[in-house]
Amino acid sequence: MLLMNTEFYQSLLNNANIGYALCKAIFNRHVVIDFYFVETNDIYEEYIGKKPNEILSMKASELFIDDSSAFEECLDLMNIKKDTAFFYSKQVDRKYNLKCFQISEDHFIHYFVDGRSFYHFNQEHEDVYHIASIGKWELNSKTGELKWSDGIYDMFEREKTSFFPSYENFYLTVHPDDVEMVKKAFTDSLQKKEIYEVDHRIVLQNGSVKWVSETCRTEYDNEGNPSKSIGIVQDITKRKTIEKLLEDSESRYRVIFEKAAIGICHHSIDGLIYNTNQKFCDMVGYTLDELCTMNYNDLIYHEDIKSGEELVRKLFSGELETVFLEQRYIKKDGSILWVDLRSNLIKDLSRKPRCYITSISDITAKKVSEEKLIESEQILKRAQKIAHVGNWELDISTKRITASDESYSIYGISKEGPYLSLQRVQEIVKFNDRKKMDEALYNLIHFDKPYDIIFTISREIDHEERVIHSIAELEKRGGSPYKVSGILRDITEQKALENELEENIRSKNLLLSNLPGMAYRCLFDREWTMTFVSNGCYELTGYEPYQLIDNYKISYNDMVIPKFREGLRKSWDRAVENKTFSREEYQIKRADGKEIWVWEQGQAIYDSQGKVVALEGFITDITERKEREKEVVYLSYHDSLTGLYNRAFFDAELHRLDTNRQLPIAIIMGDINGLKMTNDIFGHFEGDKLLKTVAKIIIKGCRKEDIIARMGGDEFCVILPKSDYSAAKEISERITAMCNDYTIGEECSIIPSISFGFAVKSDEKQTIDTVMRDAEELMYKRKLLEQKSAHGSVISSIRDTMAEKSNETKEHAERIVQLSKKVGIKLKLDEKQMNELELFATLHDLGKMSIDSQILNKKSKLTEEEWFEIRKHPEIGYRIAKSSINLYPIADFILTHHERYDGTGYPQGLAGEDIPLLSRIMAVVDAYDAMTNDRPYRKAVTKEQAIEELIACSGSQFDKNIVHIFIESI
Predict the structure, then answer these.
(1) Contact predicate 929/815, CB 8 Å
(2) Which of 175, 189, 411, 943 gets the most CB atoms within 10 Å of its CB?
(3) Which residues contact 639 (CB under 8 A, 6 or more apart)?
(4) Phi-psi map region of 149: left, alpha, beta (phi>0 left; psi -120 to 50 alpha)
(5) Torsion, CA 493, CA 496, CA 502, CA 503, rounded to 10
(6) Nearest residue to 748 (alpha-carbon basis) of 697, 708, 811
(7) ∠ Cα 719 725 728 (to 5°)
(8) The overall pTM is greater than 0.70
(9) Rounded distance, CA 954 to CA 104, Å?
(10) What pLDDT is recorded for position 484?
C-alpha cells in the first residue's frame, strides 16, 4: 500500500499542487459502491473544504452528501468507467480534475487538480495562467477562427511570428502516438456535448517531450449546433514525473512489504488497521479482511497494553523516534505470540501524527525457553528451600565459593556479592571441627577421597549453633583438580530427634501407662481378642488388663453396645483394605454397667506378605464431649432465655409437618403487650422475667404434641398438628385467661398480656406461608385493640412497684389524680391535656423507683448526700419516660414538677410560666396531699393549715392562680 512515509514524497505532492488521497473501497459483487479515506494530504483537505478528523471518520457518500455528482464521478473512476473526471464542488465553489488508479485489490489513490480557471476565464487572470503554466484557447465553430493565449506559446516554446493558431500547427506538436487519442476526445465531446479532458504529450522543437492536461468546454446555439469551444492546456510534466516516481516507489515498497521476513502492519492513531503483509497475517492467524475490521489493541494481550503507553507518549512528544518493545499478541486460536516490536510514528508535512508503521518478529520460542529456565531455577530454589539443602562450588585456584541462596541461609551469612571466600566459611566452623573439615577437603583435592562430613557452625546472623552435613566431589580439567562441588544440609533438628529417640523409647511404656485412655494390640478377629492393653484399661472399662487379655473374662466385642458392633467392624474392614486408619465413635458398657462413649483410632500391622498380623490403636472416653455436643445441639434449636424452641427449629418443623396427613394444621402467633415499655421502665431484667413467665404460661396452656417457639423479641408461635379452628381458639383463650388470673410476685412484677392471632390450613392447596401471614395479620389487629388495656396493665404495675418502694400508697396516687382533675376542669383543659394530667399524676414520682428504699422511707432527717440522691428523681423519671413511646408526652412534666415559681427549684431552676402548666398544677396538688396525710417523718396537718401554707407560699413556691383555683375546687 502507498504511504506518504517520507517527507520527500510529501514535498513532491504538495509542490505539484496535487491533492492526494488513499482510499479503501467498499464492494458489492465486485462493484465499488462506496469508500472511505485512509490518508490525505493538506491540498486535498483544502480542495474539499473538510478537516482531517472529518475526512478520516466519514465514508465518501457522507462526505459528498451535497455533491452527489462528485461522488458518482469518483465511483465511475474506481469502476474504470472513466480515465479522468472533471466536476464542480458546491462546497468550495471550485472545479477539479480528478484521476484515480488502483494499487491493490481494494485500495485506490485519488489525485485532485484545481480547475477553477475554466470558470474565471478572462483577461485579468492572464498573468495567473502564465505563472501557473496554463494556456487557453478559444475556437469560433461557425467561422473557424482560433485564438491562443501567450501561455500556449510559452508552453510549446514557440514564437508568435512563426507559430500561428491553427489545428494543423497544434497537431504537429502532439506526440505522434497521442494524435488520434486527442482528436477522438474532441470529436466525442462534440457528439456527447460533454466537457472533454485528456492528458497527452507534446514534442518541442529541441526534441524533448512535455506532458500537458487539456480540457475543453463547448457552447451550443439554439439549434444545438456548436458555436464556441473554450479550452485550457496545463503543463503537467512535473506531476507526471512525480506519479512515475510514486509508481516506482510503490513497486519497490510493495516488494519489500510483501516479501519481508517480518510482520508489518499499517494502522491509524486510533488503532484502525489499514493494511498488513502476509507474514503479519500468518503470525497472528487472521486474514487481511479480518484484520481490517479489528482494532490494533484487540491483538495485544490485555496485561501488556499499559506497558507500551509510556513509550507511545514519548513517541508522540518527540522524545523517541522509534519504539522498541517486547509484547504478547493473542492469536486467532487464543494462543500467545511473543513478538519483538518496532513501531514508527508517521507524520505529515505539518508534523501532525498520521499513522503508525509497526513491524514484529516472532520471539515466542525464545521467551518460552527463558520462562522454562526461570521456572527451572525457581523450582530448584523452592526445592532447596523446602528440603533446606544448599549447593556450592569452590574454585580451587581462587579459593572463592559460589553458593545458592539456601546455602547462605544455612550458614547464616549475609549475601554481599557474587562470591563467598573459603576463609569466611572456615571462620564460622566451631574450633573443634575445623581440623576435621580441613583434612576432609585436603584429602578430596589431593587424593580424591570421598568428602562426607558433619560439623558444627556458629551462624553470623544469630550466633546460633547448627549441625551441618556436607558432601562434595572433585572435578578435574586436563587431569588436574580445578573445582569442588558439593551440597550441604542443616541436620540440627535431625540430630536432636535422634538424641530424643532413645528417650522417647524409654518413656514410651511410662507414657502408655499414664495416658487417659487405653492403648491396645489385638487380633483381627470377631472378638477383637486383646494381646496387650495399657494400664488405662481399668479406668476406661472397669476391668483389670488381664481380664481382657485373650478374652480371659470378657471379650472387647461383648463390651461394645450391640447397635454399634457392625459399624465398628465395617470401619476396620475399610481401614485394612485401604491401609488407612480406622476412626470411630461408639458406646461400650463398663464393668459397673454404665454406658460410656469412646473414640477409637487404630491401624493394622502387616507382615512382609501384606497379611494382617495385628491391630494397634488407642481408645479414650469422650462421654463428656458427647454431652457437650448434645448441649450444643440443644442450644442450636432452643431459645436460651425461655427454653422454648427457636425460630430455626420452628421453620424446619413447620415445613416438615406441612403434609396432607397432618391436616388440618393450626398456627397460633402471640405478641407480648408492653414488653418494650417494661424494658424501658423496669429494665431488661424485668423484661426477661416477663418473657420467662409468658413462656411458662404458654407451655401450660398448650398440649404435649404442640410445638412452641419463641420467634425472637416479644413474638411466640405454636404449631398445632391435626387441629382445627376450634382447637386453636380454645388454646388461645385458655392462655389469655391464665394471663388475666396471674398474680404479681417474685417471678414477675408485671401482669402478662398477650395478643393472639391464629389461622388453619385445612386444604392442601393452601400454602403454609399464607397461613402464617393470616395468623400474623390477625395478631396485629388484636394487638391494636388490646393496646390500651396492655398499657393500663403496665401503668398499674409501675404504680404497684412505686408503692412497694416507698410508703406512698395507691391511695396517694388516686388522691393526686382526683385533685389534679378538679383543677384541670376549672382551667377548662382539653381532653388530651386531661389524659396527660391523669397519667402524669399517677407517675410523677416515677424516678423514685431507682432511689434506695431506705432513703425513701427514712424517718429521721435526711443528710446532704441523701437529699442529693432524692433530687435526682425528676431527671431519672424524665429519662425513663423519654424512652417509652407511651410515657413520652409526660416526660417534660416529670422533669419540672419540683421547679419553684420563683426559680429556686430543681433541676433546671425554671421560673414563672416557663414551668409547664401541668407541672405547676402538680406542685400545688402534691404539696397539699403531702401535708394532709401522714409521712414517716411527720404527722398530717389539717385542711385549713394546709391551705394557709399554700397561700403563704404563693408567688414563691407556687403559681398564685393555680393556688387560687385549687382552693376553690376543694
Answers:
(1) yes
(2) 411
(3) 645, 646, 709, 710
(4) beta
(5) -110
(6) 697
(7) 45
(8) no
(9) 116
(10) 92
